[in-house]
Structures are given as structure tokens and as C-alpha cells.
């Protein structure tokens, strides 16, 4: 496809001020609510306004480049589950890091550019560029001359063929703060468990939720008298395996806790069968609204996805 015919897709997010206005109907009512909700309400709302203004400016600068290119589309990230990307699309995600991760899991090889709307506010591990860089980058993007990092993704597949991808992690467990009950199998090992749910992490996600799970467990073990120091090392972004951890497994007459942490390699799968009569879910990357139901009898295979993300650097 000729470079000028390629479509650019910009994924945006709502700011905190946008969320407040949606909840309170007007900016004035939102301001009144925040300013009267605590001692620093006025300063907090002023920060919301600064963030909103910075994001609007970055979005306008990005749109100026897209309009000059000609063929583009803008989508708010809440509509990603129902959006169809073309195979030749170039995708732009206008920060924070979560927007990049949420976008990547719906892509199948399309290059993804992370744009940081406010570098003074966001570290932006997945946001190497700013809106002001886009005009310079665009010729190379259109010609596929920019380098990229490969990002391993995870996949949960139900027996009824529903699937869910993850760039950071998958959570399998209860929708509410109750115990998750399920059967788990890894290779020849199998048991029934009762826990707070299972986290399955990719290399990219290994610096976040999985790190906190391991760090917390190690701290508890040390405080309880366990010897030896646990040094947690995050996985590479393109690692050819996943890590899983069972949160707070509870051993009892009907549940075990032998399968608590491990790896899932290429061609392997963690097999799960729900024993939860209701409220069982599988969601990815912290987006609970986009989930698979995982109630009693549902079976899931969790493993490496057949596709990888491509983050432009």
C-alpha cells in the first residue's frame, strides 16, 4: 500500500476533568464537588485543569499532523473492544502508559507509537515520543523504517472459543472481594484451590502487579522467620514465557496450595476450571469492564499469545 494511503489511528483517553464533568454534568458542578470534598480541593481541581489543558494541547498538535497527512481516525480508548484495525494501519496512543498497553492488546502486528502528553507529569516507560516529534517521525513510520521493540502477550481462551489478550497481565478470579474457587492444572500437577485469584504476567507486566505480589510475599515470609533473601528480577519484554502467581492460596480439607508460582512456556498452558457459581471473571491489563465470564464449569487455557506487540522506539 502506498505510504500516503495508510491510515493513522489516534487512540485518546478522557482526562480526570472529563471524567468529573461526565459524572457531574457541568464543569462548574464538578469544581464545586472537588473544592468542597477536602482541605486541598481547590488545589486539586486546579491540577485537574492543568492536566486537561496539557492533554488538549498535545491532542491538538497531534491532530494538526494527522490532518496534514489526510487519512486518519480518532477513537477514545473505551471503544477499543469493538474497533477493527486495518492490517496496514499505524496506531498512535496519546498517554499514559496504560493507554498504550490497552491499545496494544487489540493489535495484530500494527506498529504502535506511544505519545507522552505531559513529560513533566508522566515518566512514560511506553511513551518515548511527544506530539512535537510526530511530524519528524511520520515519513519513517509510513515507510516502516522505524525500529520497534517486540512485546510478548498473554492469551486466555475459553472452551467456547472466546479469547482475551493481555499486554501486562491477566487476572482470573472473583469480580468482588470473595474467594476464587477453581481447579488448576500445570503439566502433570493438578489440584483444587481457594484463593484471591491468579495473576499471569508478561515480560512487560513483570515490573508491575507481579512484582508487587512477589515482593509482598517475600516480605511476609521474611517477617515470619524464613531465611534467605528473594531477589525479584523482571522478565524481558519479549520473554518467551509467562509467570503466574496464586494470590493468598488457602489450604483446607477441600483445597490445596501446592501450585502457587511458576512459568508457562511456549506450547504450554495453565489449565483452569471454574468452581465459582457466579461473579467469576478473567480480565486483562486492569480493565475490568472488558472481561470474560468465568463461572462454574467454564474452562480456560492460559498461555502465550500467537501474536506480539510492536512498540515503535
Structure notes:
Helices cover 25% and strands 32% of the residues. It is built from six helices and 16 strands. α4 links the parallel β3 and β4 (111-115). The mean pLDDT is 92. The longest helix has 29 residues, at 41-69. It has two domains: 3-146, 3-Layer(aba) Sandwich (Rossmann fold); 153-305, Probable inorganic polyphosphate/atp-NAD kinase, domain 2 (Tumour Suppressor Smad4, Sandwich), CATH 2.60.200.30. The strands form two sheets. Strands 1, 2, 3, 4, 5, 6, 8, 9, 13 and 16 form a ten-stranded mixed β-sheet that branches. A six-stranded antiparallel β-sheet has the order 12-11-10-7-14-15, with helices on one face. α1 packs across α2 and α2 packs antiparallel against α3. The chain has 313 residues and is of the alpha+beta class.
Order of helices and strands: EHHHEEHEHEEEEEEHEEEEEE
Main β sheet profile: 10 strands, mixed
Q: What is the count of DSSP helices, taking H or I runs of 4+ residues?
A: 6
Helix content: 25-40%
Beta content: 25-35%
Strand elements, count: 16
Named at the architecture level, the CATH assignment of the largest domain is Sandwich
- Per the principal axes of the C-alpha atoms, what is the gross shape? globular
CATH topology of the largest domain: Tumour Suppressor Smad4
- Assign the CATH superfamily of the largest domain: Probable inorganic polyphosphate/atp-NAD kinase, domain 2
Calculate Rg over CA atoms: 22 Å
Structural class: alpha+beta
- How many domains? The number is 2
Instruction: Report the average pLDDT across residues.
Output: 92
Give the low-confidence spans: none
Given this structure, which CATH class of the largest domain is correct? Mainly Beta
Oligomer: single chain
